[in-house]
Amino acid sequence: MQRHGRNPLVLLAGFAVLGVALAALLFGGDLWRAEERLADEPETPPAGRSPFTAASGSTPQIGDTAAPFTLPDFDGELVSLADFHGRPVIVNFWATWCAPCRVEMPEFQAVYEAYQDEGLVILALNQDEPLVIARRFFYDEMALTFTPLQDERRLVAAEYGAFLTMPTTYFINGAGLVTAVHRGPLTQSQLENYLSLTLN
Question: Which residues, 6+ apart, have CB-to-CB distance to 69 below 8 Å?
Fold first, then answer.
């Protein structure tokens, strides 16, 4: 007498197809947008920009020298990280479409106002957005007074390993060494804790 049981391989394949279809329905839009963003990323930053490259997976870590960069501000003036040697610097990677980035901006402003007399510099690197959009958000909507820069094509973000996770924030002391790295939004108390490691 022949038994008519289901082939376990057929059942397993059916569940796999069902899982893929469900993932596409639930997360399809985000997955496709993430693939589009990844496709826009350069495989490696331009040679000679810094010792850290996205391709090697090596990004500045605590205790490393911060990767050098020069970018235009929102008025087109070139600003270099090296311009602030001897001063504490916060480098923040952000975009207007990033909700956590928007939430933390008032915290950065509060910390900037509190520590400006101690030489604190905040460089806010906008990620590849039209200048008019970034400028309206930064100055008109948020009334921020620290320094915004345009990271066109997200080359500096790639060097710092921040091109997939935003916001990402680096803390750099006066000697140019990374003292802390934070991925995700920051509160004012967290900012002050990181600055306590950076201001000495």
Answer: 49, 50, 80, 81, 156, 159
Q: Count how many residues are written for the chain.
A: 200
User: Is 200:186 a contact under the CB 8 Å cutoff?
Assistant: no
- Tell me if 180 sits within 8 A of 171, measured CB to CB: yes
Q: Which domains does the chain have, with CATH numbers?
A: 70-198 (3.40.30.10)
Q: How many CB atoms lie within 10 A of CB 134?
A: 21
Q: What is the pLDDT of residues 51-101, one digit of tens each?
A: 333 333 478 999 999 999 999 999 999 999 999 999 999 999 999 999 999
Contacts of 65 (CB under 8 A, 6+ apart): 176, 177, 178
Q: So which residues are the catalytic ones? A: 101
